[in-house]
Design goal:
The structure is a single chain. By secondary structure, this protein is an alpha/beta fold. It has two domains: 5-147; 161-417, Hexapeptide repeat proteins (UDP N-Acetylglucosamine Acyltransferase, domain 1, 3 Solenoid). Helices cover 21% and strands 26% of the residues. It has a nine-stranded mixed β-sheet with strand order 7-8-11-14-17-20-23-28-31, covered by helices on one side. α7 crosses α8 (392-404). It is globular, with a radius of gyration of 21 Å. The relative contact order is 0.10.
């Protein structure tokens, strides 16, 4: 990788990934145990990223290794779409491209997935620019290289995170074991430094390994069926069942029954209740007794609704897609294939998609708007519990997310009581 420079960019497709990408860069989506940024940091090359303007302060705060522009150099540049699925096969394709010095362009449909260019010109980032369009900015350089047929997969819709988590977790965990420092305590069960497994834990690794990252804890009387990844400092409480393609981030509390789901860092789902074929963002609280459905009564294909448009998933099992900071009350029930926006509070039966920043109690006849100031106070209390410092950028992000999702509350068709 010597002499290489890498530029990550968010294109217009990130908006189609709402609610996942309302408050996080697309390169920070966890899937199958990795984020795209995790893979690229291992390359040890200069990294730059151009994100939407409301995320620039967050990038500077949480991803200081990413510069807003590339250093001036004659060395080649690899442009990578931030929506690239963080799977080993994708990154291997790019690494081989660089190693073979095959300059060219790789597309996924009409979107630019990646481009390897011998050189670039400098660009000036506009203060009002939301999406970086390399096909416009680097038009001249892109026309000078050939299209390449190498396959690369991008996240197109939120449910793709659930799909690719299941498809890629095997190859990703294999790579994690090859690079990490683990001890195998029983067949297919691997522990990182200071990870602990309680008594009477039953494991099944016939379909894939179980990896417990450093300082994570598994309580007694649990059942784990791989492939499963439990992130660092996370905790699985006693009498839990964690099985089949579960990918858990850092500092997560987990309990009940969890199947084929992605759970981002700092989220709590520690009580009884079912979570299946779902994506949970960060700082979510899945209340006691909360369960979601991931299968239609007809056993048919799940169709998702995004911004009023029906999208066929091609999947029989799809649960819920839940944005950062949302929370469910005790015994909440979430119907199949629903999306929950950021910073919303859920009560009762969730039978429709839920906008961001609302108190959703539709089964009781009420949906009310949530002020960003309320969420800022809640955020402060949550951060204090986990010894995380609330920065000005975190508070501003809540305000920005509120404005960015205003159209959801206007289009939701719900009687908002303000």
């Amino acid at each position: 990788m010597n002499g290489l420079r890498v530029l990550l960019f968010e294109d217009a497709g990130v908006d189609q990934l709402y609610p996942i990408t309302v408050g996080r860069p697309a390169f920070a989506i966890q899937c199958a145990g990795y984020r795209l940024i995790d893979w690229l940091e291992g390359w040890d090359v200069p990294l730059a990223a151009v994100v939407r303007r409301h995320l620039r302060a967050i990038q500077e705060l949480h991803y200081p290794q990413l510069k807003p522009s590339l250093p001036t150099s004659d060395s080649p540049v690899l442009l990578i779409n931030a929506r690239l699925v963080p799977c080993h096969s994708n990154l291997s394709t790019l690494a081989k491209l660089v190693a073979d010095r095959r300059y060219g362009v790789i597309r996924s449909g009409t979107a630019l997935a990646a481009a390897f260019l011998p050189d670039t010109v400098a660009w000036r980032e506009e203060a009002t620019q939301d999406h970086f369009d390399p096909q416009k900015i680097f038009h001249e350089q892109l026309t000078r290289v050939s299209p390449l047929a190498s396959p690369l997969r991008l996240f197109e819709y939120p449910h793709d995170v659930v799909r690719y988590n299941e498809e890629c977790i095997g190859e990703n965990l294999e790579q994690r074991l090859a690079k990490g420092d683990y001890r195998e305590i029983r067949d297919g069960v691997f522990l990182g430094t200071d990870a602990q497994v309680g008594e009477y834990v039953t494991t099944d690794t016939r379909q894939g390994p179980i990896i417990i990252e450093p300082h994570a804890q598994i309580g007694p009387y649990c059942f784990l069926r791989g492939p499963v990844l439990i992130g660092p400092h996370s905790k699985v409480i006693e009498h839990s069942a964690i099985k089949d393609y579960v990918s858990v981030g850092s500092t997560v509390k987990l309990g009940g029954e969890v199947e084929a789901s992605v759970i981002e860092s700092y989220t709590n789902k520690q009580h009884h209740g079912f979570l299946g074929h779902s994506y949970l963002g960060s700082w979510i609280n899945w209340g006691a007794g909360t369960s979601n459905s991931d299968l239609k009564n007809t056993y048919g294909e799940v169709k998702m609704e995004y911004r009023g448009r029906k999208v066929a998933t091609g999947m029989q099992f799809v649960g819920a897609i839940i944005g950062d900071y949302s929370k469910t009350a005790i015994n909440t029930s979430v119907f199949t294939g629903k999306t929950i926006g950021v910073c919303s509070m859920l009560y009762g039966f969730v039978t429709t998609n839920v906008p961001s920043f609302v108190n959703y109690a539709r089964s009781f006849g009420q949906v009310t708007e949530m002020a960003p100031e309320v969420m800022a106070s809640t955020q402060q209390r949550m951060f204090l519990r986990r010894k995380v410092t609330q920065a000005a950028a975190d508070i501003q992000l809540l305000r920005d997310m509120y404005e960015l999702t205003r159209h959801e509350r206007q289009l939701a068709g719900e009687p908002l009581s303000l």
